[in-house]
Amino acid sequence: MKQLTAELLILTFLMTIICSGQEIAVLKYNGGGDWYANPTALPNLITFCNANINTTIKAKPKTVEVGSAAIFQYPFIHMTGHGNVVFSADEAENLRNYVLSGGFLHIDDNYGMEPYLRKELSKVFPDKQLEEIGNEHEIFRDKYAFPDGLPKIHEHDNKRPQALGLFHEGKLVLLFTYESDLGDGWEDSSVHNDPLVVREKALKMGANIVNYAFKH
Description:
Blueprint: H1 2-20, E1 24-28, H2 41-52, E2 62-65, E3 76-81, H3 89-100, E4 104-109, H4 114-124, E5 131-132, E6 162-168, E7 171-178, H5 182-186, H6 189-192, H7 196-215
Helix pairs in contact: 2-7, 3-4
């Protein structure tokens, strides 16, 4: 029965994606963290992807709550923030079903969410741990080449950037970008006054992530 339920969930997810086209969403979560940070980031990333990697993503990203069935409408969900994150048991189960049925979750630490996130991810996947993704992974080379792995966009604690992931049956289903702050690099240039070369690195890495999510 559990296998049948999983297969129906996957089929429903795929049919929803086929019918709704390419859309991505921002994840709204509880705990007090600013899930709404970087409001110009995803729209700019969408514009870049549509112009450069042949996507046709709708211009305005949606907002979905972590416990809602609406998350299954989106092949790619982005999560960010600076502070606390809390998942209830039902929300953790919903998020687990989402990624196991074909969805992709990208979490970008905007600075300060990492210790809270790790704790909550243990509810989503109690049998898995985040592991660092090697520079040879296709997410660093499929559209744009990043031979040194995840680029450093903003300096916070003088730590190296890390791409950490959760895998299911050999496939990356959740990506946590830490000490990089890609979302800041996607924002309007006037927000952080980053040089063009830094913003382009952030957008190209973001395009690689979106491409991987849609491809798989």
